[in-house]
Structures are given as C-alpha cells and as structure tokens.
Design brief:
Elements lengths: L1 H13 L18 E2 L12 E7 L4 H15 L5 E7 L5 H15 L2 H13 L7 H9 L5 H8 L2 H17 L6 E4 L3 E4 H4 L2 H18 L1
Parallel strand pairs: 2-3
Antiparallel strand pairs: 1-5, 2-4, 4-5
C-alpha cells in the first residue's frame, strides 16, 4: 500500500506543468512501457484500450470528465475496456462492485453515480450498503445482491486480478493499449497527455495490421 500511496503522490506531482511531454516523439521507456509479453485482448481483431482504475482513487475520479468524452468518440475498430484494480481490502470490494454492475448491464447507467457517492463520503464497503445506494439509482436490490455473490462474478473478479498482474501495474489510473503498451498519467504528461499517447499507440497498432 505504501508503494500505491507513493505512486499516487508522484502522479499528483506530475499532473500539472508537464503536459508538453505528450508532444514529444513517442518513445518506449519514456511515455510508455512495452510489456515483455503481450496480454490477450478481449475482442480479437479490434485494438483494445484498457483503463485500470479504482472507485476510491481521486485521480481516477478526476480523470472521468476527460476520458469519458474520448471513449464516446472512439472509432469502431477500437474496443475500450475498464478493469478494476484489486490490491486487497476495499479495492477488491469496489472491484467486485464494478464487475457486478457490468454483469447486470447497468454499469454505464450508474458508473458516474457510484464514483460521486464514494468521493462524496459514502464508503460502499459492504454489498448491503451498495445495494441500498443502488436501489436509489434504479437497480434492483435483490438482483444486485444475488449477482454480487454469484459464481460468475467471482470468476470475473479472478480474471481481472490476473489481467492486472499480467499488465504489471503498481497504481491507478493506468492505461494499456492492445495488451502491449502500458502508461499512466505521470509518464504521459497528465490526463490529456495520456489520451494523446493512447491515440498514437492506437494509430501504431492500426498501421501494423
């Protein structure tokens, strides 16, 4: 956890005043890291962009207004995927929350509300607390609880943990393009810089096809 806090502090220090870095020529080991082993993508044939996040992360919350409009405009050959980072404790609880909402097909409807609730002071630390909150957002309470505790969701939780390990992440938010290139807000020059790096890596992968 100390490393995660340090990572968050480094990201905070680099969010402002270094956006010019994104304008520099893209270079492995500088704005991004090329993984030694590519991680399989969810939809073969499409260029995958992954955002690893945690609902409790203030930097992930602050990234939302920047990344969401960008996601909405991605071309048809790009598949965007959110994966919750789970480093234990409340990270895992919130990660299972996200995966449950995704399994229910309501994540897109309540994702913003969950972020706002947690950063507004709600802990959402138990399934019952989550269910009570989500009921106010139109999500069926009993269905949420049964889905949260389902075998299918628990399997997806384990898959998400394995993906994060394969990406070798140490903090959030972190982005990965096509299972090959990993970068964060610090290395890429802030929120806008991260999306610029993503755009360039998407173009690189498209050209390589």
């Amino acid at each position: 956890m100390r490393n995660l806090i340090l990572s968050a502090a480094l990201v905070t220090a680099s969010l402002f005043g270094v956006t010019a870095q994104a304008a520099e020529p893209l270079e492995a080991g500088k704005q991004y890291v090329e993984l030694s082993s590519a991680v399989p993508v969810a939809v073969p044939g499409k260029i995958e962009v992954v955002e690893l996040f945690w609902y409790g992360c203030p930097h992930c919350y602050a990234f939302e207004p920047t990344i969401n409009p960008w996601v909405e405009k991605l071309p048809a050959d790009v598949n965007f995927v959110r994966i919750p980072a789970m480093f234990g404790g409340i990270w895992n609880v919130h990660g299972q929350l996200f995966i449950t909402l995704e399994a229910m097909g309501v994540e897109h409807d309540v994702h913003k509300a969950v972020f706002e609730a947690i950063h507004g002071g709600k802990k959402l630390a138990t399934p019952e607390e989550m269910a009570d909150f989500l009921a106010g957002e139109g999500v069926d309470k009993d269905k949420f609880l049964s889905t949260y505790n389902s075998f299918a969701v628990k399997g997806k939780v384990e898959d998400a943990k394995k993906k994060a390990q394969a990406y070798q992440i140490s903090g959030v938010p972190t982005m990965v393009v096509n299972g090959k290139y990993r970068f964060d807000l610090g290395t890429s020059g802030g929120p806008e810089g991260a999306l610029s790096v993503a755009d360039q890596l998407i173009a690189k992968e498209r050209a390589a096809k």
